[in-house]
């Protein structure tokens, strides 16, 4: 586009004078009246200057795609420099010879033509100097542009990798409790328990949230807490009140948003590794508070000291990875085992 504008403007300047190349130097003026009255003459200049524009653009493309992208990228600096020298030595006289065939350059020997040297000598040093400075100027510009494009591609690849990793981590959230719940549902239907419809309702709510809300980047904190409450109610039905839940919920959430299926992992982990292995009634304490935009979740569960391992399990490991991807420098997650219980604390800076 720049070269076309140059050809248009320079053709208009030449068209504004009578035999401009024979009467050099000439003023750099654009006569709009002559542009319309002598439009044929304007086209005569414009089409020939368009040839110059095509040649310059072709040199740019050769430098970018052949010399830089292919030779410099694949074979190194030495091959690139050597190729540039060969390119200058062979192509410069050929291109000068080409533009000398244009009618605009059909001038007497003593009149400067539109070549870098201004004469008929295709091997003049000024022609080579023009090619040299053209490569010197365009090469760093092309390299900067190529680097910017490459960085954009790398950023896009990194973004896609992050999305893929988050998807994989999200897919590992619920299989354990889902299979156990289906087993419990099967047992309840066999005994025709009155709790079976409630369990089905809570399970449907959980699956609906997982399928529809779980695919979104963020959801309302209110919905995430409702999902957590449904999960806990389902666990109560499953265990026939074997689990003793001590729950504290925030009074207000003020339209805060959170990445879906984060908080559930901590509660799942408490039940899977602390409550389910126990033979007696066990207690789970869950406290969630909101201070401005900072959420704090505290979860404590009793453990079986004979069977419980010292590590927090894969669920918390996946949670830590998701937090690092979604909330870099905006979260803390600690999990600590005590003699008879396990404590997990999460602080998270949320968005509105």
Could you walk me through the main structural features you see in this protein, from its secondary elements to its overall organization?
The protein is an alpha+beta fold and 352 residues long. It has 2 domains: 2-165, no CATH class; 171-349, Heat Shock Protein 90. It is 59% helix and 13% strand. The chain has helices at residues 2-15, 32-37, 39-75, 77-100, 125-170, 175-190, 196-213, 221-239, 263-275, 314-326; strands spanning 219-220, 243-248, 257-258, 282-291, 294-302, 331-337, 341-349. Strands 2-4-5-7-6 form a 5-stranded mixed β-sheet, with helices on one face. A two-stranded antiparallel sheet has the order 1-3. Helix 3 (39-75) packs across helix 5 (125-170) and helix 6 packs antiparallel against helix 7.
Descriptive terms for the model:
five-stranded mixed sheet, 2 domains, 352 residues, Heat Shock Protein 90, alpha+beta
Radius of gyration, CA atoms, in whole angstroms: 37 Å
Query: From N to C, what is the helix and strand string?
Result: HHHHHHHEHEEHEEHEE
CATH-assigned homologous superfamily of the largest domain = Histidine kinase-like ATPase, C-terminal domain
Q: Mind telling me the CATH class of the largest domain? A: Alpha Beta
Query: What percent of residues adopt helix (DSSP H or I)?
Result: 55-70%
CATH topology of the largest domain: Heat Shock Protein 90
Structural class of the secondary elements? alpha+beta
Query: Architecture of the largest domain, CATH level 2?
Result: 2-Layer Sandwich
Largest pleated sheet: 5 strands, mixed
Which stretches are poorly predicted, pLDDT < 50 over at least 5 residues?
Answer: none
